[in-house]
Design brief:
41% helix, alpha/beta, 5-stranded parallel beta sheet
Amino acid sequence: MKIVIAAVGQKLPAWANDAVQEYLARMPKDFGVRLREIRPEARNGQPVARLQAAEATRLRAALTPDSLVVAMDETGRDWTTVQLAQALSQWRDSALEPVFLIGGADGLDPELKAQAKVTLRLSSMTLPHALARVVLVEQIYRAWSILNSHPYHRS
């Protein structure tokens, strides 16, 4: 299975980058997760819609015809880790390649969100961008551990 996390932003704090890299390194080769960092649009007083549209163009470049778009958004559904694991299992069995999209400071472009097959949120609370990446990659690793009866997840 191939999974991509396409996230706007290129300069994470060292603690967040280290955590993301740690979880990515734990993933087995048959459950490959790749982070694609997307350059944020320079603000320069531009309207939010223009910023979002420019970032959406860059995010779309991370998609392939086989991509199943998963938008990470504060208005998304709350899934448990078990529900995420079940979805990943179904997508794997259907040969779908999920691409989790994390927008920039102003969120995802509305047209890009509308393309998403699934819209999820990580928390009802607002998370800093760097922490959202860490939480998402950890949850994907935890979902893998559930699917493989690995002791990392204990319920």
